[in-house]
Amino acid sequence: MATLPAEKLQIIQEYGPHGAFMSGIRLDPGVEPDRIVKTHCCFCGQQCGIQLKVKDEQVIGFEPWLEFPFNRGMLCPKGVKRYLQDSHPDRLLNAVERDASVPSGFKPIEYEAAIRRVAEAIKRIQNEHGPDSFAILTGASLTTEKAYLIGKFARMALRTANIDYNGRLCMVSAAAGNKKAFGIDRAANPWSDIPKSEVVWISGANVGECAPITTDYVWQARENGAKIIVVDPRITPIARTCDLFLPVKPGRDAALFNGILHLMIEHDWIDHAFIERHTVGFDAVAASVKEWTPQKTADVTGIAVKAIQRAAEWWGTAKSSFLMHARGIEHHAHGVQNVLGAINIVLASGRIGREGGGYATITGQGNGQGGREHGQKCDQLPGARDISNPEHRAFICKVWGIEEADLPKAGVDAYEIIRQIDRGEIRGLISICFNPQVSLPDNNFVSQALDKLEFYAAIDFFLNETAQHADIVLPGSLHEEDEGTVTQLEGRVIKINKAVDCPGEARQDWKIIQDIAHTLGREHGLTFASPAEIFDELRIASKGGVADYSGITYEKIEKQFGVFWPCPSDDHPGTPRLFEPGSWNPVAKGSGPFYFPDGKARFNIAQYRPPVEDTDAEYPLMLTTGRVVSHFLSGSQTRRIGPLVEQYPEPRIELHPRLAEQHGIADNDWVTAETRRGDTTLRAMVVTTIRPDTIFIPYHWPGRKSANQLTNSAQDPISKIPEYKACAVRIRRAQGPPDWEAELEPQQ
Amino acid sequence: MPVPEHLEFFIDPSRCIGCESCVQACSECDTHRGHSMIHLEYVERSRTTQTTPVICMHCDSPTCAEVCPADAIKRTEDGVVQSARKPRCIACSNCVLACPFGVPKMKSDLELMMKCDMCYDRSSVGKKPMCASVCPSQALFFGAREEIERLRKRSAAVNRFRFGNQTVTTKVNMMVPRDARPEYVDVAAAMEEDSLGGDIMLNVLST
Predict the structure, then answer these.
(1) Long-range CB contacts (within 8 A, 24+) of B66-70
(2) Cross-chain residue pair B47–A691, CB shorter than 8 Å
(3) What's the pLDDT score for residue A1?
């Protein structure tokens, strides 16, 4: 039973989200902190260095960390105000269990009793329905140590195949595309290569809002003479002063890349020597783009022929370049094809594996990189190993001290876990660091599925919208209450340091996981005394794998301001740039710089298909979704930080004045957007900075304000990423404000 | 201590991404903790994402001080125009109305004019002001002139502004295109210009 135990408003009243503001000691200018802790931001994949000021065991503010080389003191507004999540009024200070007889729906329960209830439920459900009937959903904001531990817990203690993580909504298309083309999934270059480029190509990345620090790297390239090309349905802040803006229609990126490659081949703007020596598959790809003439590309993408030609010329004739993309091309049912299209124009240019030859996805989550390498994905084992590969299974079984037969096979992806819950195949769930009620597409279906669970335990520091459905909520740890490593978007492994202890009965997440294992009587291999001990085992488990951490230590990270993996030995300094000529890797073993046995990169045909749900007479517009600068993901943290809520209080529907006029909509009017799955009524933001055939809604809010009521759960067949960035929608002017307007604060 | 002479403030609106990191960080500075002194302006959001951060320009002859009937606003020797002095300020808002850049804020609850003081507690000991420390696009830059000249090859610094008949010279610099460097920034003319970039081909939608 997992329907909400009480009226939504009463749960919100007790558990929030409420906005925290500066008050008390945090407002006092004369206070000298007891200590200043060097650590990193808790939000996005850039993982900016920051120093937290601590007074009386409370984080009271920050001080820029000027020496950390990635951001040199720079921070976005989320980083500036992140400290307000500490000592928050909504903080869970003890375990709670659902109880429909209390007004707020939950009552405190002793921690040990809560763990016992979780363990009993796991035993009962697995005895009745088999080990795979209990699933785990995790997240890529966890440290690598926690991600490793939970992967091990799922396979060894729960013996379930069904563990997957919220990186499924984030990085998996890029990961799959990179593995197909390069044999490895990591940014090819450090960000310091960006300013050394003649052309910077940014596809589907709202850099200014979603990776703000990267802006300075792009602007520095421009100061050095680079041309900036931005491909996006909206003129985002990074697009405003770019040199060439390609206003692509949502879901047409593969077509654009194919059209660019067509022109590169036609004008012989390709590096024949590189293609011959370092790649395979070019001829088939060249044949596949023959049909992508500028006119056909323009017809499909909605970009003018002359703009496509200019982009191809700039890209084709550049001596140095950096191509980056993000969720804008990846969040599609053809996300992997889009990524392969991008990689094809990089490989054809020959500009990779060297200074001024750059390519990267801009990883989204805090540990988006490290969290996808060490075994919390349904098909993966530590060291970026494949759970279906017999040699990889044998290696990890040896490290873990188990029989191969006892290691589960590949499980299903995060959305399929929800579908299996709906079908009654999965009966029990533990979630941590994942708020699918807000973040998964078609989330009315997610609610329906959660209601069918026999038992659901959530581990979190706030009662997020999904945890409101839980039977037991265990109080986990905030970012600043634990230590461990994360790997940021360049592939640099860095160290999160503890600033304060967990308050009340709250525990560090890795302890909670181990407590469950212990109470289950399955603590074998899950008795670590510290994150450092977990990291030491992870080093061994990753040794010889593609993501080799074996030469990384906490000390080396501190000394070098981070260590880029692969780092295969104690005396190895790490690898900031991949694929350099003459470089060695464990797959190619010296035969070439790419991670295949022949050392060569792969061209892959990037097949264009329109979005799964394209426009029609009934739903004539495209809906695309994304982020705003002051919020992060499902907003579980940022919707509790008052100044960030004030900066962008509620979602609005962005639309072009031409479209607005057709519907009689003025700026700030209430507008209903509706798809085949759901609708939402929000205020209009009428701007010329978006395509007239497209509307945009940011996705950080829950309930009736949630953009994901509308989005499509169609998934990429390879990466299983959902199609957040394109579905068919219609709009109409609303008669008045929605019911929630009078009841809910902006962040709720 | 005065702000070291070799460290200067430079603003480059062409870099601004409107993230408001400066606005959020401003309230973390100890000289005005809890109060943000920066204005982050959308030039015309219906047509462009262009934003521009407005900090105090620290005029050589500050209009705010000239119009203050209580002589509450002082410019220290290092050229920093300070917030109004609490014992003198009569909260008349003359400075708010007169400042050509629109910088001072009247805090009616405190009966005090407050304004950007270049984070005096930080800049006077050689540290960067909060906004320039955190600014992700470095539209707000605090450092040596040689450094910005080396880094920003496309731009040049201007510190003269024309408002109708009034010309103001400031301690803070505005970055302008080097190849079309004006003698002064004509603020009134800039208000009538099209704020969209010329080359980004907004007209290329093929639909």
Answers:
(1) B66/B98, B67/B94, B67/B95, B67/B97, B67/B98, B68/B94, B68/B95, B69/B94
(2) no
(3) 43
Q: Domain residue spans in chain A?
A: 8-85, 96-170+368-480+499-524, 172-361, 621-742
> For residues A489 and A714, what is the distance between their CA atoms, to the nearest angstrom?
27
Cβ proximity of A201 and A215 under 8 Å: no
- Domain containing B140 equals 7-58+119-204
Q: Which residues pair with A730 in a beta bridge?
A: A674
Q: What confidence tier does B203 reach under pLDDT thresholds 50, 70, 90?
A: very low
Assess if residue B84 is contained within a domain.
no
**3-state DSSP assignment of residue A411:** coil
B86 domain-assigned: no
Overall average pLDDT of the B77-100 stretch: 94
| CATH number for the domain formed by residue range(s) A621-742 | 2.40.40.20
In DSSP terms, A685 is beta-bridged to: A654
* A13 has pLDDT over 80: yes
**CA–CA separation, B40 and B17 (whole Å):** 10
Whether residue A513 is predicted with pLDDT greater than 50 in this model: the reply is yes
Q: How many domains does chain B have?
A: 1
Residues 6+ apart with CB under 8 A from B203: none
Domain A8-85 architecture: 2-Layer Sandwich (3.30)
What SS3 state is found at A742?
helix
| CB-based contacts of A269-277 (< 8 A; 24+ apart in sequence) | A269/A312, A269/A313, A269/A315, A269/A316, A269/A317, A269/A349, A270/A316, A270/A348, A270/A349, A270/A350, A271/A348, A271/A349, A271/A350, A271/A351, A273/A350, A274/A347, A274/A350, A275/A347, A275/A348, A275/A350
What Å distances lie between residue A229 and A92, A311, A356, CA to CA? 46, 7, 16
Is B45 in the A-facing interface, judged by CB distances under 8 Å?
yes
CATH number assigned to the domain with residue range A172-361, chosen from the 4 options 2.40.10.340, 3.40.50.1370, 3.40.228.10, 2.40.50.140 = 3.40.228.10
A96-170+368-480+499-524 CATH, one of 3.40.50.2000, 3.40.50.740, 3.40.47.10, 3.30.1330.50 = 3.40.50.740
* pLDDT tens-place string over residues A149-202: 999 999 999 999 999 999 999 999 999 999 999 999 999 999 999 999 999 999
- Cβ contact (<8 Å) for A208 and B128? no
How long is chain A? 748
Residue contacts between A and B (CB atoms, under 8 Å): 166
Distance from CA of B166 to the nearest CA of A (A): 30
In a domain, B173, yes or no: yes
A89 upstream amide cis, omega within 30 of 0: no
User: Quick check: A120 pLDDT over 70?
Assistant: yes
Output the six-digit token pair for A313.
């010329």
The pLDDT of residue B191: 61
* Contact in structure between A654 and A695 (CB atoms under 8 Å): yes
Query: What per-residue confidence (pLDDT) applies to A590?
Result: 96
Radius of gyration of chain A (CA): 25
- Please provide the average confidence, as pLDDT, over all residues in chain B: 89
Q: A345 near A321, Cβ under 8 Å?
A: no
Of the candidates A577, A580, A611, the residue with the CA atom closest to the CA atom of residue A594: A580
Distance from CA of A252 to the nearest CA of B (A): 14
B34, closest residue in chain A (CA to CA): A27
CA distance linking residue B9 with residue B139, whole number of Å: 10
ipTM comes to 0.96
Q: How far is A205 from chain B (nearest CA, A)?
A: 14
A-chain CB neighbours of B128 within 8 Å are: 64, 73
Would you tell me how many other CB atoms lie within 10 Å of the CB of residue A647?
Answer: 21
For B178-200, what is the mean pLDDT?
A: 67
Tokens linked to A509 = 């997440």
Please say whether the beta carbons of B161 and B170 come within 8 A. yes
Work out the number of other CB atoms within 10 angstroms of the CB of residue A574. Answer: 20
